[in-house]
Input
Amino acid sequence: MKYFNTLQEISTSFSAKEHSILLGNVEECKMHFHIHPSAELLLVTSGELTLHVLGKESEKIPAGKCALLFPFQSHAYDRPEGTEYFRFNFLPSLIQSFFAPNEKNTGERSVFPLNIGEYAAFLDTVRTDTLTLYKVKGFLYNIIGDYSNNVPLVEKHVDDNVLSKVITYVDSHKSERITISKTAAALGYNEKYLSRCINSAAGFGFTTLLSMLRLESARHLLKNTDRTVVDIAIECGFGSERSFYRSFKELTGYTPNEYRMFYPKKIVTNDAIL
Output
């Protein structure tokens, strides 16, 4: 399933490990079901998003509401023209006191209400690109407070826990020649069982998952570094530059070079110790 929409989006990635905050604006892009090890917040300021999480009913996110997606949740969303929203991707370690004890849990639903006026100053800061890690962590903890007050947690399905382990393993070995057989052996699973779990939890097979994680890493490097396309292709595990170009354009609609030109680099670094 793919979605083609014109949108106004402010997309931000918070990385505790690198102590950097990455900010970029997206005018138009192609969306589909995808999955990643980071958590994700969607905060709508005008219009409405429709969120699709695999295995759950679709949810509307109207202006003034927010949605939290846990790491490893396969999701997509419809974004009508004229919708403005903020997307925040962040490592769970940034608010470890919430995610660590809830590693095997997820939200009963994703969408929850909040008083958007309380976050107006922070969102203005995002727009002007002057973030600090302290402001980011304060924002995230406040958001999680609103979420916890409104959404009960439920235990993840066993397939979701298996998928989390697969993604963690694949993400740290994506530059290698990796197969589902090798992954199953490394994690101690039967290959057929592992394949079933991946398809059930992600909505697609191991090969697609591997390609998706490699392309997600490639997109991050293209947006936020000056490394050559060849170097990025090799680090992310593509057999050749040609293979990388073909796979990347199939996913994004752009060549790697076009994608790099499309995303402005705005990097704010903070030396705070977490």
